[in-house]
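quick one if you have a minute, typing this from the bus. theres a chain ive been looking at and ive put its sequence and its fold in token form underneath. please have a look and point out which stretches look like helix strand or loop to you. anything you notice is useful, everything is just below.

***
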Amino acid sequence: MADGRGALLAAGRRRIRIRTSSPGAPRSTDGTAPLAVLAAVFTVAQIVLVRPALGLGWDEIVYVSQVTSHHPAAFFSAPRARGVSLLVAPVASWSESTALLRVYLALLSGLGLYLALRAWRGLFPTPVLVTAGAFFASLWVTLFYGPQAMPNQWVALGALIAVGCFLRYHADRSARGALWGVAAGAVLMALMRPTDAVWVTIPLLVLALAGRHVRLLAALAAGLAVGAAEWVAEAYAWYGGLGERLAEASRIQGGLGLQIAVDDQLRSLGGRGLCRPCTGTMPHPVIVLWWFALPLLAVLALVVAVRARRALRTVLPLACAATAALPYLFMIGYAAPRFLQPAYALLAIPVADALWHLVRTPAGTWRPVVTSLVALALAGHLAVQLAVLTHTVDRNTDSRRDWARTAGELHRLGVRPPCLITGHEAIPVAYYAGCSSGGTGGNNENTTVAEILSTADRVPVATLIGPGGTPPGYARAWPPHTIGDLQVRIAPTPEQGAPKGAAADGPE
């Protein structure tokens, strides 16, 4: 009780000093300056290490093509949401410059990280927040996807904002700004990936219901509803209902159910953007070591928090991280490292708290030996992350240049906009060529054989066949060409009078 009275008196004296300070006195930054510096370093690192010249990837093309006026829109499948398209619209709607889009997204990512960490002020000391932000920002997956038009990192930042503001309002009901932060974080998550937003917020909803926190519950529900409104409306307009869209999304993801993808996620840590099917050897142990250290540090953080009688601010992000990771570790049959970005962001806060507990005594003095070991481990971790990032950027740069070269060769062969491309990697090649893309089967089915043949009467149509593949029935009579390791069949123009193919042979 004496400690409690002292804390209250000290807080009261601080409030009095703030009120009576002179108008010209400089304002306290409340520890936000280090967060701003971290965000600035993160922004610069993205631009320098990932490079603005990196071409658009497959998924990026789908999102960006929805809002650009320079390319036909690619097929937008059931699991996707329009949040990323809205995010890039201020640039992509008027400019074809990929470099400009990369810089814009890097700046937004830096600002997002700053706001997400700022939401945790007062819950943890500034050094802990800076360490947490540095850990999350230095992961190769965070640096790689920061300047890209992809949703997962924005779900991660929205999760940090929502959970941090939830805890702040839970501790102080007069903090109305935190209540708005809860809603804003939920909106951001649901705009990007509605299903991920639900998984992240399950512990928040449970706590709000159990504690009868009506305002918190209303803020969460309103945020999720606003963010997912467009996705739900599309479900009824195009899929026949919400259940039907969820079922179609599940089918595209291979069928959601009990499936162990932990080993797939481990394989993807070596720099694989999408591990489907996820075969091959595991990365070197030094690459995945940090992944096994996370749960150990999380347990240590929980022990520290319980002993300090501040368990909730540690338990809640850990719980949200667990529910965010659950479907991607145990419910799908493939992996991508970006899927776990929300879990990594939420784990970063407790993990950073645990690291500071290791290097400092309760009296605030350093533990020299432990500090040296932790610093060495963190330096090694950073070196590994940068090595994986460099390898990943180089590999993706090469693959995207291949798409651009293929598009250039198609132009040389007479396939120029307006045009249609089908077959192997049709979506990215079509984007680089300025064409529409079509598929008669698989997850990107959006046309029929009859529609393809009808289109060939009006505009150039090409079908791409990958290495070892065979041309679809409708294109077997089309003249063949070779571009790299691809076979290309181009429909004859009506003036050539050649057959359009045998539609009866079936779809590709």
The CA atoms of residues 41 and 414 lie 46 Å apart. The first helix runs from residue 2 to 20. Confidence is low (pLDDT under 50) at residues 1-29, 498-508. The chain has 19 helices and five strands.
